[in-house]
Specification:
By secondary structure, the protein is mainly α. The chain has helices at about 1-5, 30-40, 50-60, 65-70, 75-95, 105-110, 125-140, 145-155, 170-175, 180-185, 210, 215, 240-255, 260-270, 275-280, 285-300, and strands spanning about 15, 20.
Length: about 300
C-alpha cells in the first residue's frame, strides 16, 4: 500500500509538523533539530553587534525558536538549558562559544522584566507553563474542540473533575494535569452548570469555601462534590455526616422550647455564626443560593 501511494514507511516516533510524534514521552534526542537550529542562529554577525543589538537578537530570534514546541509539549529541562546556554553565549560572547568573556549580569537577573531591573529576556520555563495553561482553559470550559470532547468522554465519562481524581491518560495529558494547581491559583470559576467546579476547594464567588467555613467543611462526607451535585437541602442529605443532621434536629426541638437567645447560644456552640448563615443559604435553590451567598458575603458575615 505504501508503494501504491508513494509513501515512506516509518516507525514511531517521527517528526510531524516539526514536533516529535509518538506514543511515549519524547526524549531529549527527539528535540535535536530544535537544538541544532538554535546553534546555527549564533552567526558570526553577532560579533559586530553591540550588547543592545545582541539583546535584541536574543529576544527576537533565539527566544522565539522553541515557542512552537512549547505551545504543545512540556519541553525537557535539558533542552531548555541548552537554549539558555546559547542565549547567554550570544549575549555576552557573540558567536564564539569558547570565548572567556565573563557575564556582566547574572542570568537570573537578566530574565527579570525591565521594570524590575532585568533585561526582559524571556524565562523559557515560565513561558512553557503559560503556553500549556491555555489547554486547561479550553478543557475546563468544554470548548467545541475534538480533543476536549475525546478526553472528557474517555477519561471522565461520569462527571468526575480532573483535579479531584488521579492522573490518567497519555503522557501529554498527564503533563498538562501537573499544571492544575497553578491554573486554579490564577483563575476564578464562573458558575454555569457547575459540573467542573468543586464546591468546597475551588475559587468561586470570590471565596474558597473550604477555608472560609472550615468547621462546616469538616462535616462534609464528600469533600470533592461539585456545585452541580450539591443537593438542595444539605442538612438532611447524605452528603453531610449524621452529626450535623442531629444538630439540626435537636436545634429545632430546642427552638420550640427555648427563648431566642438560648436558641442562638445552642447553635453557636455546635456550629458557629458563619457556618449557620451558610447552611441557611445552602437550603435554597441554586440560583437563589448564589445570590443569597453573595449578599451574605457583602454584608460581612
Amino acid at each position: 500500500m505504501a508503494g501504491a501511494f508513494g509513501c515512506k514507511i516509518e516507525s514511531l516516533p517521527f517528526t510531524y509538523l516539526g514536533l516529535p510524534l509518538g506514543t511515549t514521552k519524547p526524549r531529549v534526542d527527539h528535540f535535536e533539530p530544535l537544538m541544532s537550529k538554535t546553534e546555527r542562529k549564533l552567526t558570526a554577525t553577532s560579533n559586530f553587534l553591540t550588547h543592545a543589538g545582541r539583546l535584541q537578537l536574543v529576544n527576537s530570534v533565539l527566544s522565539s525558536l522553541p515557542t512552537f514546541a512549547m505551545c504543545t509539549l512540556q519541553v525537557p529541562a535539558t533542552v531548555l538549558d541548552y537554549i539558555d546556554r546559547a542565549r547567554r553565549h550570544c549575549l555576552w560572547r557573540g558567536s564564539d562559544s569558547n570565548a572567556k568573556m565573563k557575564p556582566l549580569v547574572a542570568w537570573k537577573k537578566c530574565a527579570k522584566p525591565k521594570r524590575k531591573g532585568g533585561l526582559g529576556i524571556i524565562n523559557l520555563r515560565s513561558q512553557n507553563k503559560a503556553l500549556l495553561l491555555k489547554h486547561l482553559d479550553k478543557f475546563y470550559n468544554k470548548k467545541e474542540i475534538p480533543w476536549v470532547k475525546l478526553i472528557w468522554n474517555a477519561h471522565y465519562p461520569n462527571g468526575q473533575v480532573p483535579h479531584a481524581t488521579t492522573d490518567r491518560g497519555s503522557f501529554w495529558w498527564r503533563d498538562i494535569l501537573k499544571l492544575c494547581d497553578l491554573f486554579r491559583g490564577i483563575v476564578e470559576c464562573k458558575i454555569r452548570d457547575g459540573s467542573t467546579v468543586l464546591f468546597w476547594s475551588d475559587l468561586w464567588n470570590d471565596n474558597i469555601l473550604q477555608t472560609k467555613y472550615p468547621r462546616l467543611f469538616s462535616f462534609a462526607k464528600n469533600k470533592n462534590i461539585t456545585v452541580k451535585q450539591l443537593p438542595g437541602d444539605p442538612v438532611s442529605s447524605p452528603y453531610l455526616r449524621t452529626s450535623i443532621s442531629r444538630v439540626s434536629k435537636h436545634s429545632r426541638l430546642y427552638s420550640n422550647n427555648s427563648s431566642s437567645s438560648q436558641y442562638k447560644r445552642f447553635l453557636a456552640i455546635h456550629l458557629g455564626k458563619q457556618d449557620l448563615l451558610f447552611l441557611k443559604v445552602l437550603q435554597s435553590p441554586l440560583q437563589e443560593r448564589l445570590t443569597s451567598y453573595s449578599v451574605h458575603l457583602g454584608l460581612g458575615f
